[in-house]
Amino acid sequence: MKLLVVTLAPTLKTDYGFKSYAPYVKEMNIWMEDVSEVTIVSPTKYKPVLLTDAFKRNDITVKSIPFLKFSSPWFALKSVVFIPFILFRLILEMKKADHIHLRCPGNIGLLGCLTQVFFPSIKKTAKYAGNWDPKAEQPLSYRFQKWLLSNTFWTKNMQVLVYGDWFNQSKNIKSFFTASYRTSEICQFESNRFHAPFSFLFVGSLVNGKRPIYAIKLIEKLIKNGFFCSLKFYGDGIKREELETYVVNNNLQESILFMGNQNADSLKLAYQNSDFSILPSKSEGWPKVLAEAMFWGAIPIATPVSCVPWMLNFGERGVLLNLDLEKDKMTISKLLSNREKLLLMSKKGIEWSQQYTLDTFETEIKKLLK
Predict the structure, then answer these.
(1) Per-domain residue ranges of the chain
(2) pLDDT for position 251
(3) Structure confidence at residue 35 (pLDDT)
(4) Which of 113, 164, 174, 298 gets the highest tally of CB atoms within 10 A of its CB?
């Protein structure tokens, strides 16, 4: 089978093959495992710092296309000039493919969505990694991709992999997931958690979109309310210095720590030793860090965006934030005083998350490629 991948993620040449954004590579290695040929259409240059990993295969064919940027009139003009070339390249490569795999949303994904219309007989999948919630406020280009991918008149022979279970979807749409751990890693539920001092962790980039300052202020409220709590940040970003300054100015250094970026093994240990995982994001696709936390028994505390309410079963497996500090403090304070409820919530989270292992993920991807 000839697999064609259309993606915005840059494919970068190395001495031994190609590399790209690490989480994407981890997934694509599974897609590429049982196919005879792989072609990737993507940009091949990227200047900013990027967490990368190498593809397992070194026989990948890469067709280079330019990045599209619309952040200034000059970039927009250049991008408009590039679009016909990209469309032509996509058409040429799609004609050769047995299976077309689109990575959406994004501007390259948008062009892939438009081009696939001309190949109704070729099997296709699209991984929509963003928020599929029909009510979510999103850019016009994202809304258009969702409409086109869902439309069974224009888009045929397609399975669109989305996060969450949404009502009134077309036959093109398939609820999907992602995974981090193996079935062999599943261990028995431990009931010795949820005693003071309570441990919280935040895993993710320290940027405005993840609202790390809200996590700090919430823990600060709980501490002032008499609860012994700690919060550890795993991740880095442009807001770190500002957050550290807030912690120092408010004498929270003993309770709130910044651990920086850590490897998967360190994160796994952190989940296992934490009571709660907090993520007050503005937007998510599949918030992997919540699923990972639940896998190890940590209770998620998160904003009700994208598929998060579904993941948390609308409050049975975790806490949905109101983004009102007083209300959220009261909700969590009541929970901290009810250990039996915390244990039940943790157990339900474990049972749900441990359905979604890498073994199951690999099996489902192989089904899609048949």
Answers:
(1) 2-181+358-369, 187-353
(2) 97
(3) 96
(4) 298
